Amino acid sequence: MWTPVREALGRESVALDLPGHGGQPPLTQPVTLAEMADGVLARLPERSHLVGFSLGALVAQHIAAFHPERVETLTCVSSVCRRTEAESRAVEDRLAVAEADFAASTEASIERWYAGTTVPEALVEDTRRVLQANDPESFLHAYRVFARGDAAIAPELGHMGAPTLALTGELDPGSTPDMTRRLAEAIPGARALIVPGARHMLPVQDPQALVLALNEFIHDTEGAVA
């Protein structure tokens, strides 16, 4: 997922798998947002421009809140934030579908992420294969953190000090523009950016827009420090 972004970024970068994802061992028991953050922190460079996507954005927020010495800047891509009651019900409904019918959940995710986009079918199929290959138990443990993690981190947002960029796609139905604006309002000095025409999989659908935003943000921050 991060390959197009890393290739275009023009900076040294490291893509870390979240606990239960990629090359990390599957999750075999319930896990908290704090535990997932600790699992990333152990592999994180000493200090970095930290970028998190979706569930990874919640993990990144936790690291920025509790280990600020490790975070130069924070970028939250397609992040949820302080879900309303209706938004919480919607994600709990999606979790229930995943618990009852894993295959149906996969197809629903593909629809939410890619419907109406110009992402090549080969990339969409790559995403489908990754989802279908998930260990269902591990996936559900991680999804529960995604469904409820915004409530866990919400009380800490106002105390965070790292320069922060929050951005999402204009058409993202789950990590909505309203959530990105809420996040930017909650974190002191944070800025919000909405990418026109994009849905949830911003690093895949429009990596150039993400790279441009990242590099401008980091450059501005470095200039302010200088």
TrEMBL record:
Identify the InterPro entries for this entry. AB_hydrolase_1, AB_hydrolase_fold, AB_hydrolase_sf
Q: Report a single Gene Ontology molecular function.
A: hydrolase activity
AB hydrolase-1 domain: which residues? 2-211
Stored SUPFAM superfamilies: alpha/beta-Hydrolases (SSF53474)
rRNA-binding recorded as keyword? no
Q: Which residues form the signal peptide?
A: none
Swiss-Prot/TrEMBL keywords: Hydrolase
Q: Does the keyword Hydrolase apply?
A: yes
- One Pfam family in the UniProt entry: Abhydrolase_6
Organism's domain of life? Bacteria
| PANTHER family associated with the record | AB HYDROLASE SUPERFAMILY PROTEIN YCLE, MONOACYLGLYCEROL LIPASE
Q: What is this protein called?
A: Alpha/beta fold hydrolase
Q: Which organism is it from?
A: Sinomonas cellulolyticus
